[in-house]
Every structure is written in structure tokens, then in C-alpha cells.
Amino acid sequence: MIGEKQIGRIAVLTLAHGKANALDIELCGEIARRFDELAASDVRAVIVTGTGRMFSAGVNLVRLLDGGAAYVREFIPVLEQAFRSVFFCPKPVIAAVNGHAIAGGCVLACAADRRLMARDAGRIGVTELLVGVPFPPMAFEVMRFAVPHRFFAEVMFGAATYPTDQGAARGLVDEVVEPASLHEQAMAAAESLAALPPAAFALMKQQVRQPVQDQLSRHGEAFNAAATDLWTDPETATVIRDYVSRTLKK
């Protein structure tokens, strides 16, 4: 489900969950567990990447439809915890985006401190409104943190996916690199951040991201309840089913 290896002081996590690294309860739970363990370990930085032409296609919509409201109510907190564990990890986190990073896959990449994407390897963007679901609060705050204000409305309301260069122009990607050098460049970025004093980095990262925690403390519970209600609404399931039939040919 997630491969892990350590190269010197850098941990490399490779998502390997089905064809699309689709986010379900099992994968999200494993992401949260691995990042929580790494946060307490002596590694100095973490790289997260995917396999083949897929970083992550986002939430497993077929599983969502099959599981119904009961599955959704169990899934959303696990999804939120996965994003939280990556976003608030005290270690430097590098996303080596090897392929498509769609919807929740884009959010996962944006939770990292630095995002490198292989040129022309795929598309990146958040399609939640096309799918018919709102952003749970943690996912929304990750995107608000990552995307420059001038592009935020376009990225969120437009629900488009962008090729690598256009994704970089909108702040979804920090650097576009040649596919053959993606992992080399990601290691270089990780080593650069790993060279910083760990305690000082962790405190500064906490300070930089504290406004997200403050926002979640103020409004997260209410927005989470509202989002869950919409995710479990039968009309939403109809929109999701139509989206799946159009895009996945199911």
C-alpha cells in the first residue's frame, strides 16, 4: 500500500495502492500512521511520491458510492487526519509528483512543504465541485494555504486540472523538473531542508502554519458537520454517480 525506504536521513514513501492510488479508508489511515511515526522518528525529512503516471487520483468515488452514507461518515475523519498528519508534520515534507494529482491527490501534494512535479507527467488540480462535494475543512485550509490568493478562486471554483507548467503558474507546483531527474531533485530539496536545525525548523513551521490550526479551531467543527451532511446527501450521490459514469466509464 505504501512502500518505505530510508536513504541516509531521508524517508521516501511511495504510494502503491491500486491503479490510481485512490484515497480510501485504508490508504488514508496508513498515510496518517506513517507520518505520525516519522514525525516521532530521527529521520530529518520525508519525500512522498507515487508510482508510474499516478501520484493520486483523489478519493475513491466508486468505494464511496458502494459504501453509502455509513462509509462516508467513517471515511471523512480519516481523510482529514491524513491531510493533517502531512500538513502539520514537524519534519520537512517534499512531494515528488510523478503523475496525475487530482482532487484529494492535489490536496495531499499541497500539504507538503515543497512540491516538485515531473514535466508533462500528468495534470494537477482540485475537481471537487465537478464531483459535487464540498471540501472538508482540513482539505480546504490546505488549499487556501498553498495557493496564492490571486489564483485561489479560479483554482477552487473553476475545478479544473492543469498541465504541469500551468499548475506551477498557479502555485500548485513549486518547481517543474524533467521526469528522469524528479527523484534526484526531490532528494536534493529534502537534503537542503534536512540540513537546517530540526528544532528550529519545526518551530518555524508550526508558526507559519498556526493560522490554519487557529481557523480549524474556530470553524472546523461546524464546517465539517456541514460538509459531511452534503457528502451523505442522496442528491450528492446522484451527482457523484453521474461524474463517475462520465469519467471512469463505470
Concise account of the structure shown:
By secondary structure, this protein is of the alpha/beta class. It contains 10 helices and 10 strands. The strands form 2 sheets. The protein has a 6-stranded mixed β-sheet, with helices on both faces.
Structural write-up:
- There is one protein chain.
- The protein is of the alpha/beta class and 250 residues long.
- It has a single domain, classed as Alpha-Beta Complex (2-enoyl-CoA Hydratase, Chain A, domain 1), CATH 3.90.226.
- The protein is 56% helix and 16% strand.
- The chain contains 10 helices and 10 strands.
- It has helices spanning 25-39, 61-87, 104-110, 128-131, 137-146, 149-158, 164-169, 182-194, 198-231, 234-247, and strands at 2-7, 10-15, 45-49, 54-56, 93-97, 100-102, 114-118, 123-125, 162-163, 175-177.
- The protein has a 6-stranded mixed β-sheet with strand order 1-2-3-5-7-10, sandwiched between helices.
- Strand 2 (10-15), helix 1 and strand 3 form a beta-alpha-beta unit.
- Helix 2 packs across helix 5 (137-146) and helix 5 packs across helix 9.
- The model has no long low-confidence stretch (mean pLDDT 96).
Task: Present the secondary structure layout.
Elements: E1 2-7, E2 10-15, H1 25-39, E3 45-49, E4 54-56, H2 61-87, E5 93-97, E6 100-102, H3 104-110, E7 114-118, E8 123-125, H4 128-131, H5 137-146, H6 149-158, E9 162-163, H7 164-169, E10 175-177, H8 182-194, H9 198-231, H10 234-247
Parallel strand pairs: 2-3, 3-5, 4-6, 5-7, 6-8, 7-10
Antiparallel strand pairs: 1-2, 8-9
Helix pairs in contact: 1-2, 2-5, 2-10, 3-5, 5-9
